[in-house]
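Propose amino acids for all 730 sites.
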């Protein structure tokens, strides 16, 4: 074939290698011919020989590409066959065949896909359109319900499944050998002691006494004892060191064994039970008085006293035989049950009510702390949680929470240390093991009392809405049954000095929402005749500091909130903008408000103005004001057994008021020691006892004696002379 350009010049491409310039064959024929040519002339000079070899290898490589992989073994045979075919082609081709025009067609090879990314869009008319639309709808529903659900986590990953591999390891064969040796008893003794001997210095070795004989050794061959003595100092010193090392080792083993026993969990549990048994034996009379059980008497004491009493009776019978009949007649006359009951009633009426101290919950950990709050467990009436902190800003210390049990009044069952003073705490009803704690820095933490760990289960340190002032009170509140459908659902509410009443959501972390932001209110003062109008003072802060709150015992949607400016606001959880009512009567900060559990329209409040006020929710004027001494009232609480009895904790004394007896003076007044201030009170849930916390870190347990509680709980309000007077009907 020849190629000519437009000018008529021959521009036919020449082959890279041609064996014969006169021959014009195809590319395959040229290569085969060149290989045959150089194969014949391969025995020439050194240069031609090397050229022949290189071209032969090139020819073989081209043949390898054209021949199938299975026929590469017979390379020499196929090469000869191809050369024969080339000669046949040379003979068949003529000049006319060479002058013929040949058409060459260029076709595109098949597309090789390196990366295939299927389309994410499908035609609506395709067969899979319905199935894909259904999957998209399900995914949209899942994404819609994902907000706030803990079961969904956003993650993206792409992994490749690794190919399975079989791995085999071959090692040398393990050879087992049996060896044995004969050892005498003294060899064992010396070898064992040699391990215990510590290396000695030369000064210690030279100071050893020489001339000591070693222990006698016995041989089995002669069956006789052969004492072996040595007068060298080294042998004597080694023997002494061996004996001392054995004694030291035995002593160390005993110490290690004793330490292992003391630190074992089983021994600790046994000590725990033993301590409880001892405490119950020691405090048995006081615990019986607390639970209102009869006091048990020691049998040994009773047997001794019974013997003496019997001897005295026999002597009296001998001396006063005649008077015995008269005394028995008098005794029978007074053993009538009706008479005895009347006598007991008279004695109870004559004896005045009083507080009898049983014991105090105190230990080395609580010394120097002030009792800030107390709370009973909602399920276990023997478990008491006490918070320790300081109310003064200048006297702040690290806080402490102790869980006391009546089974061991001398040491707490659990202790939790806090970075700041504890100001409030409360047990949960739905989860009795959860204890919520509020601190002076505004943090809220939840502890698990079943765990022995000191760390909090949840805290508000990561919350962006946490309080900026002290949390003065918190409480677990049961939600409305109609709203939730389950009476055990609870919410945690607290009030703080930053003027916010918040509700905390207990999930993976604590977060809160505001129920109310307490705003300052102007005091309503009557203008006297002829008095000029006073200018309104500018307020430093628009929010009033919250000090205490209490939810209504029947409808937890309503609650009372006491403020630092002396006002009490009635609020609703449904409205966070305005107050339902405002009660003005105190002239100082309100430290505690408490609804009456029996008459749910009445509530008490105590303040720093030395007074305790009784309110009715329908009237904004106080019903009764109790002010017996000039002292700050820190806490007040209604009795869980009577609608007329309440306790008030003043700095100098604890007072028990019975409104059915007197509204002017308390029926019981217990005075504190000179360096002691009472800070909180708490009634026992199932007994007639009162718990009082003080500034020294002690929680005193008192028994209410000779305090007759009314049989009923009815309350009748009567309006007289434009003043609402409260009469309690027993």
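Proposal:
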């Amino acid at each position: 074939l020849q190629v000519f350009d437009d000018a008529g010049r021959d521009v036919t491409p020449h082959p890279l290698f041609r064996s014969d310039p006169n021959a014009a064959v195809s590319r395959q024929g040229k290569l085969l011919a060149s290989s045959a040519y150089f194969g014949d002339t391969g025995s020439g000079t050194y240069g031609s020989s090397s050229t022949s070899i290189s071209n032969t290898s090139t020819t073989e490589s081209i043949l390898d590409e054209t021949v199938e992989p299975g026929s590469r073994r017979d390379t020499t045979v196929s090469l000869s066959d191809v050369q024969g075919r080339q000669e046949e082609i040379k003979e068949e081709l003529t000049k006319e065949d060479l002058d013929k025009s040949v058409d060459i067609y260029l076709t595109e090879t098949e597309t090789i896909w390196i990366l295939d990314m299927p389309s994410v869009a499908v035609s609506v008319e395709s067969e899979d359109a319905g199935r894909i639309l259904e999957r998209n709808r399900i995914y949209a529903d899942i994404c819609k319900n994902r907000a706030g659900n803990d079961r969904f986590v956003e993650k993206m990953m792409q992994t490749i499944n690794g190919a399975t591999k079989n791995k085999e390891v071959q090692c040398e064969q393990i050879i087992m050998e049996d060896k044995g040796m004969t050892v005498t008893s003294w060899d064992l003794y010396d070898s064992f002691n040699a391990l215990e001997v510590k290396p000695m210095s030369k000064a210690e070795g030279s100071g050893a006494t020489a001339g000591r004989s070693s222990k006698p050794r016995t041989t089995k061959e002669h069956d006789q004892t052969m004492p072996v003595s040595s007068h060298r100092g080294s042998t004597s010193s080694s023997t002494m060191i061996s004996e001392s090392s054995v004694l030291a080792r035995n002593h160390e083993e005993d110490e290690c064994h004793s330490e292992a026993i003391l630190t074992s969990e089983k021994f600790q549990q046994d000590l725990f039970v033993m301590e409880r048994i001892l405490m119950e034996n020691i405090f048995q009379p006081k615990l019986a008085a607390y639970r209102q059980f009869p006091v048990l008497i020691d049998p040994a004491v009773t047997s001794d006293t019974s013997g003496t009493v019997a001897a005295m009776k026999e002597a009296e019978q001998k001396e006063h035989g005649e008077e015995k009949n008269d005394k028995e007649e008098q005794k029978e006359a007074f053993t009538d049950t009706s008479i005895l009951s009347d006598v007991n009633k008279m004695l109870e009426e004559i004896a005045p009510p009083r507080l009898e101290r049983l014991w105090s919950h105190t230990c080395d950990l609580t010394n120097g702390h002030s009792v800030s709050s107390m709370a009973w467990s909602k399920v276990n009436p023997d478990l008491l949680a006490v918070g320790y902190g300081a109310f003064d800003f200048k006297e702040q210390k690290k806080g402490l929470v102790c869980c006391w049990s009546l089974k061991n009044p001398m040491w707490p069952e659990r202790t939790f240390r806090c970075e700041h003073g504890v100001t409030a705490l409360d047990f949960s009803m739905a989860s009795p093991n959860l204890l919520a704690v509020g601190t002076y820095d505004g943090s809220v933490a939840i502890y698990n009392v079943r765990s022995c760990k000191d760390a909090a289960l949840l805290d508000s340190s990561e919350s962006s809405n946490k309080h900026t002032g002290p949390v003065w009170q918190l409480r677990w509140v049961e939600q409305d049954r109609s709203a939730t459908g389950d009476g055990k659902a609870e919410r945690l509410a607290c009030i703080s000095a930053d003027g916010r009443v918040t509700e905390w959501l207990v999930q993976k972390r604590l977060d809160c929402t505001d129920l109310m932001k307490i705003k300052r209110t102007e005091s309503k003062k009557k203008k006297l005749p002829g008095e000029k109008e006073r200018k309104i003072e500018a307020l430093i802060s628009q929010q009033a500091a919250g000090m205490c709150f209490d939810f209504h015992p029947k409808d937890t949607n309503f609650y009372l909130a006491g403020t630092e400016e002396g006002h009490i606001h009635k609020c609703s959880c449904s409205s966070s903008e305005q107050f339902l009512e405002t009660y003005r009567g105190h002239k100082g900060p309100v430290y505690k408000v408490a609804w009456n559990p029996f008459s749910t329209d009445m509530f008490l409040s105590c303040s720093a103005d030395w007074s305790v006020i009784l309110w009715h929710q329908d009237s904004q004027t106080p019903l009764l004001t109790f002010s017996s001494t000039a002292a700050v009232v820190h806490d007040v609480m209604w009795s869980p057994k009577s609608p007329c009895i309440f306790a008030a904790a003043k700095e100098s004394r604890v007072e028990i008021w019975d409104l059915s007896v007197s509204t002017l003076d308390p029926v019981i007044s217990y005075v504190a020691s000179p360096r002691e201030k009472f800070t909180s009170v708490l009634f026992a849930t199932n007994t007639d006892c009162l718990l009082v916390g003080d500034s020294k870190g002690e929680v005193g347990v008192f028994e209410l004696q000779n305090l007759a509680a009314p049989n009923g709980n009815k309350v009748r309000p009567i309006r007289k002379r434009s003043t609402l007077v409260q009469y309690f009907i027993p």
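The two ends are 135 Å apart (CA to CA). Confidence is low (pLDDT under 50) at residues 24-77, 201-237, 330-337, 711-730.
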